[in-house]
Amino acid sequence: INVLLEERLCDRARTMGDLFLAKLKSTIKPYSPHMTVDARGKGLMLALEFVDTEIGFRVSKGLFREKVLVAGTLVNAKTIRIEPPLTITAE
Predict the structure, then answer these.
(1) What does the alpha-carbon distance between residue 32 and residue 38 come to, in Å, rounded to a whole number?
(2) Fewer CB within 10 Å, N or C, the chain?
């Protein structure tokens, strides 16, 4: 708890999350509505929603290849979660 407070990690999550989400929204815009539905989140708990599970799975697989760890939600990959560490930088 001290580290969270001293390093202002909650504020950092909000700031970096807003930056990350804005970039995600602009990145998926050309693929909407035929592939993507939405990008949403709060802080650094982010999600990408696709029109179907197959597209979400293919995107996840491509991200894994690039060493970006994402996870599906519930029982499918129609919506994938992106949860970077609180120490992520803008670069």
Answers:
(1) 8
(2) C
The torsion angle over the Cα atoms of residues 13, 39, 21 and 89, rounded to 10 degrees, is 70
Which pLDDT belongs to residue 87? 85
Omega cis (within 30) before 85: no
Helical H segments across the chain, by residue range: 2-6, 9-28, 53-65
Q: State the DSSP H helix or E strand holding residue 84, giving kind and residue range, or none if neither.
A: none
Nearest to 69 by CA among 51, 85, 91, 49: 85
* pLDDT 10s digits, 28-40: 999 999 999 999 9
Residue 14 pLDDT level (bands cut at 50, 70, 90): very high
64 is written with which tokens? 């894994």
